[in-house]
Design a protein that fits this description.
About 70% of the residues lie in helices and about 0% in strands. By secondary structure, the chain is mostly helical. The protein starts with a helix and ends with a helix. It comes from Dryoscopus gambensis.
Length: about 280
């Protein structure tokens, strides 16, 4: 709780406005700051030195990555130039455990740095993690909503085209990956317009509703019901009508009993969560 309140304070601090920008001259400044003893920071930055892994600890780079958000919070975004090179070095580390550690905390770092630095320095790293091993991608996926909500609308829309890539995993039996995707899509409904939801998130939801694993399907029923609610409340009523017609066509009239069962479960969820007025449901 203390950490959250501190992050909230940093994010809203008028002295560290998100509109602040650093000139190229300031970016080239040496890694000098006056928040902590410089020798201490230099020791921390040296943790990425390959020789340290051989002489001190083979996992020293992972420890460095784990502590980086805390160091960034302590130094403040005005001193991000001290950490930027180290962060990029860690993000391209050969050990997936190091990259995984950064992937799990990139959303927290984005809060600390603000939107301008996030767009310039974190988004390229984030995009790299999206194409990484599943062990790294899951860190990004688990906090997808937390990261995307910090981006500008135009930048956020670019990721609509990439969401379907999360359906493909290194191991097809990794159903928890798809379950996490369904959970995140529920949260992402608040970030996108009715048109984007219908065009991009609807096909994903229908695919997840037909998943082989029941745990994934159950979360997907909730996703579809929340989608119905969101589209019903939108100013364009045609989206929700088209969605319901597709539900009937794909599931209610499905030649497989499992598809028809899916339709019943979706109807149950829509009623239980009060996603539609009863006359509209009827």
């Amino acid at each position: 709780q203390r950490m959250d309140s501190t992050l909230h304070y940093i994010h809203n601090d008028s002295d560290l406005s998100t509109n602040s920008s650093f000139s190229p001259e300031e970016e080239r400044k040496s890694k000098v700051q006056d928040v902590v003893p410089q020798a201490l920071l230099d020791q921390y930055l040296s943790m990425t030195d390959p020789s340290r892994a051989q002489t001190v600890d083979t996992e020293i780079a992972k420890h460095c990555a784990y502590s980086l958000p805390g160091v960034a919070l302590t130094l403040g975004r005005q001193n991000w130039h001290c950490l930027k090179d180290t962060y990029e070095t860690l993000a391209s580390d050969m050990q997936w455990k190091v990259r995984r550690t950064l992937a799990f905390s990139i959303h927290e770092l984005a809060v600390i740095l603000g939107d301008q630095l996030t767009a310039g320095d974190l988004v390229p790293v984030f995009n790299g993690f999206l194409k990484d091993l599943d062990e790294v991608r899951i860190g990004v996926l688990k906090h997808l909503h937390d990261f995307l909500k910090l981006l500008h609308v135009d930048k956020r829309r670019e990721y609509l085209y990439q969401l379907q890539e999360f359906l493909v995993t290194d191991n097809t039996r990794n159903w928890r990956f798809r379950a996490e995707l369904a959970e995140q899509l529920i949260l992402l409904l608040d970030l996108y317009s009715a048109r984007d939801i219908y065009d991009y998130l609807r096909p994903l939801a229908f695919t997840l509703c037909a998943d082989k694993v029941s745990s994934v399907r159950w979360i997907s029923y909730k996703l579809v019901s929340e989608m119905v609610r969101k589209l019903y409340m939108a100013s364009t009523p045609t989206f929700v009508v088209d969605l319901m017609n597709e539900l009937i066509e794909k599931f209610c009239r499905c030649h497989k009993w499992s598809g028809r069962q899916t339709f019943v479960f979706i109807c149950q969820t829509i009623i239980e969560d009060d996603c539609l007025p009863m006359d509209q449901f009827a």
